[in-house]
Amino acid sequence: MQTIAARLKLVIEAEVASRGRYSFLGGRTAVSAGTWRTWWTRGGVPNGALVEAAASLWPQYAYWLATGCTDARCGHIRPLPAGEVGGAVRTEYSQAYLNGLQSAPRSAADSDNAQGAAALGALREIAARRIDEIAKNFERAQGA
Q1: The Cα angle at residue 94 between residues 91 and 100, in degrees rounded to 5
Q2: How many CB atoms lie within 10 A of CB 44?
Q3: Is 45 a domain residue?
Q4: Is residue 86 one of the residues assigned to a domain?
Q5: What percentage of the chain has pLDDT greater than the value 70?
Q6: Radius of gyration over alpha carbons of the chain, in Å?
Q7: How many domains does the chain have?
Q8: 23, 74, 84, 110: which one has the fewest Cβ atoms less than 10 Å from its Cβ?
Q9: How many CB atoms lie within 10 A of CB 138?
Q10: Is 71 helix (H, G, I), strand (E, B) or coil?
Q11: Which of 137, 139, 142 minimizes the C-alpha distance to 93?
C-alpha cells in the first residue's frame, strides 16, 4: 500500500500543472506556497493541514487519500494515472454532491439567508440524484 505522502503527491500531480504548482496550492488553500514547496521537496509525512487542504480541494479523493481505499460506486475515487481510463461506474452526481458540500452553509444562521437556502436546496436536489446514481452502480455490480 502507498504511503499518505505518495497518495498526496499523486493527487497533486493529477490535478495541478507542475509549473506554478506551489502558487496554485498556496492560493487555493490556507497553507502557504512555501509550506507546500518545503513538503514536496524535502519529503516526509504531510501534516494534517496539507491533507485537509487537499481533501477540501478535491473531495472525490479524500477517502482514498486518508485510507488508501476507494469506494467508486459512491464517488470516492483515486486519481487516474495518465493513460488510464475509468470503469463503468458513474459518479457525476456523487462528484457534484461532494463538491457542493464544500460551499454549503455550515450553520443554521448561514442557511437562513436567501443564498444559503438556495445552496441547500440545490444540494438536496443533487443528493437525491446521487442516491439514484449510487443505487444503479450497486445494481450494475450485482449484475456483473
Answers
A1: 140
A2: 8
A3: yes
A4: no
A5: 91
A6: 17
A7: 2
A8: 84
A9: 13
A10: strand
A11: 137
Residue 135 C-alpha cell reads as 443505487
Task: Please provide the average confidence, as pLDDT, over all residues in the chain.
Answer: 89
* Grid cell of 71 as nine digits: 469506494
DSSP 43: -
Helix (H, G, I), strand (E, B) or coil at 131: helix
Distance CA 40, CA 133 (A): 37
The range of the structural domain enclosing residue 134 comes to: 92-143
The reply to whether 65 falls in a domain is no
- Contact present, 104 and 124 (Cβ < 8 Å): no
Rounded-to-integer distance, Cα 57 and Cα 59, Å: 6
**Structure confidence at residue 13 (pLDDT):** 95
Is the confidence at residue 1, as pLDDT, over 80? no
Task: Determine, yes or no, domain membership for 77.
Answer: no
